[in-house]
């Protein structure tokens, strides 16, 4: 019984990992990002951090009375929602102890060693509802609490909604990827020195170094990658080992600047926080900017295929 449970979760994890890389390409190819559904609403480190703080403030101490899941079949087949919906029953009667985040992943910790893992990294909205506010039917998961407030989670692109016991966290792909030893962009140990050392001698492209499970820093997605490489004036197809000391510094400074500004301004402009407010940070470069004119050099922004995704760059500024 126990071994079959482990097997089930492991299978789910490997399919989630495969789906994340495969679907990145599908979503970009289908142009969903330009229609405002997928990547545009992506939740990366700053947005996950903002949400987790707001959720911690509102939800800590609340007890779950009921859960509702809907429109889940496709997400379930992809491994983005638990294979067995009854897993969510384990959240009922449990109390929220705290909400934290690391990288792009939000962990709602409940009493009795239960967790809700949320990672709407390619698009999603997590909202708080006071009892007097009507709830739209557009959600995938709703948790109702004893005081008649509620939480809803809606995925608009790839993402994770998993109810997991503590003992199952080790089998969660996104949890293992982000709640790891890898430095977080605002950690004290994410220094120019440590960043430079991590890049030195690595004959792999920058995207692999900055985004995904082999990255040297957690919580950066394709959106941040485009923004920081543009600000640093570095072509995204460059290999990490080719960068000069000055370029490594520019890249490090751009990462810190972008993350800090997004935290200060309530996330990216497309982001919607726990209270339904939009963020105020406008990326200097990002998806959907192809064909626009670079404000720095006047060249036309172009789109490149890169590591299973698309990336907008200024050919004038990024070398
Ligand atoms: Zn330019």
Report on the structure:
The chain is α+β, with helices and mostly antiparallel strands and 319 residues long. It has two domains: 2-178, N-terminal domain of MutM-like DNA repair proteins (Alpha-Beta Barrel), CATH 3.20.190.10; 192-268 and 279-313, Helicase, Ruva Protein, domain 3. 31% of the residues lie in helices and 18% in strands. The chain is built from eight helices and ten strands. It has helices at residues 2-29, 45-59, 73-77, 173-178, 192-199, 206-210, 222-232, 245-264, and strands spanning 64-69, 96-102, 105-110, 114-119, 124-129, 141-145, 150-155, 160-165, 302-306, 309-313. The strands form three sheets. Strands 1-6-7-5 form a four-stranded antiparallel sheet, with helices on one face. The chain has a four-stranded antiparallel sheet with strand order 2-3-4-8. Strand 3 (105-110) and strand 4 (114-119) form a beta hairpin. Helix 5 packs across helix 8 (245-264). The radius of gyration is 20 Å and the shape is elongated. The N and C termini lie far apart (56 Å). The structure holds zinc ion (ZN).
Features:
10 strands, Helicase, Ruva Protein, domain 3, disordered N terminus, four-stranded antiparallel β-sheet, binds zinc ion, alpha+beta, N-terminal domain of MutM-like DNA repair proteins, elongated, 319 residues
**Oligomeric assembly:** single chain
**Mean pLDDT score:** 88
CATH topology name of the largest domain: N-terminal domain of MutM-like DNA repair proteins
Shape: elongated
Structural domains: how many: 2
Distinct small molecules bound, one entry per kind: zinc ion
Total E-strand runs? 10
Distance between the amino and carboxyl termini: 56 Å
Question: Biggest sheet, strands in spatial order?
Answer: 1-6-7-5
CATH class of the largest domain: Alpha Beta
Helix content: 25-40%
Give the helices and strands as they follow along the chain.
HHEHEEEEEEEHHHHHEE
């Amino acid at each position: 019984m126990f071994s079959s449970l482990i097997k089930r979760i492991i299978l789910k994890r490997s399919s989630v990992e495969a789906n994340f890389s495969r679907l990145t390409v599908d979503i970009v190819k289908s142009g969903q990002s330009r229609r405002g559904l997928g990547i545009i609403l992506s939740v990366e480190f700053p947005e996950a951090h903002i949400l987790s703080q707001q959720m911690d403030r509102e939800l800590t101490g609340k007890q779950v009375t009921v859960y509702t899941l809907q429109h889940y079949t496709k997400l379930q087949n992809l491994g983005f929602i638990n294979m067995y919906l009854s897993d969510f029953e384990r959240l009922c009667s449990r109390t929220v102890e705290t909400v934290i985040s690391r990288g792009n992943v939000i962990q709602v910790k409940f009493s009795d060693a239960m967790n809700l893992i949320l990672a709407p990294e390619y698009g999603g909205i997590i909202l708080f509802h006071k009892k007097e506010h009507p709830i739209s039917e557009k959600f995938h998961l709703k948790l109702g609490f004893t005081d008649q407030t509620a939480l809803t989670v809606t995925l608009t692109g790839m993402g994770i909604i998993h109810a997991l016991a503590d003992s199952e966290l080790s089998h969660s792909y996104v949890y293992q990827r982000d709640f790891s030893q890898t430095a977080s962009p605002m950690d004290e140990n994410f220094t120019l020195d440590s960043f430079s050392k991590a890049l030195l001698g690595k004959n792999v492209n920058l995207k692999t170094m900055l985004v995904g499970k082999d990255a040297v820093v957690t919580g950066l997605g394709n959106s941040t990658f485009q923004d920081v490489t543009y600000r640093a004036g570095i072509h995204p197809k460059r290999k990490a080992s080719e960068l000069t000391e000055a370029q490594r510094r520019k890249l490090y400074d751009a990462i810190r600047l972008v993350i800090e500004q997004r935290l200060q301004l309530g996330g990216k402009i497309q982001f919607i926080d726990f209270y339904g407010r939009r963020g105020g940070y406008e990326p200097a470069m990002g998806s959907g900017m192809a064909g626009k004119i670079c404000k720095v050099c006047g060249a036309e922004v172009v789109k490149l295929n890169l590591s299973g995704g698309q990336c907008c760059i200024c050919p004038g500024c990024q070398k």
